[in-house]
Amino acid sequence: xxxxxxxxxxxxxxxxxxPTDEVSELPVGWLQSVFAEINGYVSxxxxxxxxxxxxxxxxxxPSFPTRRPEIIAGKNIGSTKQEVMPGDVLVCKxxxxxxxxxxxxxxxxxxQIASSEWIVLRAPDWKLGLLASLLFELGISRVDLC
Length: 146
What we know:
- The chain has helices at 35-38, 128-138, and strands at 45-46, 55-59, 70-73, 81-83, 89-92, 101-103, 111-114, 118-121.
- By secondary structure, the protein is α+β, with helices and mostly antiparallel strands.
């Protein structure tokens, strides 16, 4: 944790929604939070080429339209990736006009990795499926995650 109580590598605690979109009154039992304060993801990278014969489930921007990770051997992956796990929410940080929000599915038996174009959100105590749907509906250009 850094001095702000956030995991190393996380943002400076900007709100999940832009200040002009803040909700003035929330329903009973709801709360408003800065996602960086609840995001438990700490980046761990892997070079799949070091595991040439291992098969991975790769969450990449090109495979996003199918909503299925690419099943691919490490020797066919050309760069370092980040490890992810079932339930993580991936938000694409390239070309924010294209709304790409994807929740990592249960494992199909292989290690799960994602390209560096994704911001990974992990908060085990939160209903991230609901958050993924909300982010998709809002459109990524309205959300400030970093």
